C-alpha cells in the first residue's frame, strides 16, 4: 500500500477509500482479518488521520469493514444490506420521477430471468407457505377495499413482498436474492398511494395464477403467469 496519489477532481478520502480496498484485495485479507493500525496506515498512505478516518467511515457505511475501539479495524463478511440501504436513501432524496419505472423494469428482468430456476427449487412446503401468504394478501385486500383508504395497506404490501421473496428464496445466488429484497424495500419506501380497489383485485388475480401454476406443478403455466404478472397494463381496461 504505497502513498496515495492525488487524482484531479476526486476527493482525497475517496482515493484513500480505493487504496484501502486495493490493499485488502492484494493482501488477500478475509472476513475477521485486521487492517494495520491508523498510525501505520497514515504513514503508508501519506495522509492525515482526519482523511483516513473519513475513508474508514465510508468503508463502514458500505459494510466493507467494522471499526471497534480497542480492537482495531476488522474486515466484514460480504453483505449487500448496507449498500442497498444507502442506495434506497439516495434514490428517495433524489426525487427522480423516473426511478420507479426504472426499478420496475429491472425487477421484471431479474424475476423473469430467474423464474425457471426458482420453480425447480420450490418444495411442497414452500408452495404451502405461498398459499398462506396469498390468503394474507386476500384478507389485507378485503380490509383495504372495505375501508376505502387511499393509503397503501402496509400488510398487503408486506404479504406481496413475502410472496415473491418466497418464490425466489431457494435459488443459489445470494446477490440475486439481495437485489430482489432491494426491490421490495424500495417498494415499501416509495409506494405509499394505493391506486384503486380494482388495482388490488387485479394484483390478487395475478398472484392466484402464479400460485395455481405451482399447485399444478406446471412450469410452462408458471412462466406464463409470471410473464402475465409483469405484462398486464392496469390502464388498458380503465
UniProtKB/TrEMBL annotation:
SUPFAM superfamilies: GntR ligand-binding domain-like, Winged helix' DNA-binding domain. InterPro entries: GntR_C, TF_FadR/GntR_C, Tscrpt_reg_HTH_GntR, WH-like_DNA-bd_sf, WH_DNA-bd_sf. Gene3D superfamilies: GntR ligand-binding domain-like, Winged helix-like DNA-binding domain superfamily/Winged helix DNA-binding domain. CDD domains: WHTH_GntR. It holds the Pfam family FCD. Residues 10-78 form the HTH gntR-type domain. The keyword Transcription regulation applies. Keywords: DNA-binding, Transcription, Transcription regulation. It comes from the Bacteria. One of its GO terms (molecular function) is DNA-binding transcription factor activity. PANTHER family: GNTR-FAMILY TRANSCRIPTIONAL REGULATOR, TRANSCRIPTIONAL REGULATOR, GNTR FAMILY. This is FadR family transcriptional regulator. It comes from Porcincola intestinalis. The lineage of its organism: Bacteria, Bacillati, Bacillota, Clostridia, Lachnospirales.
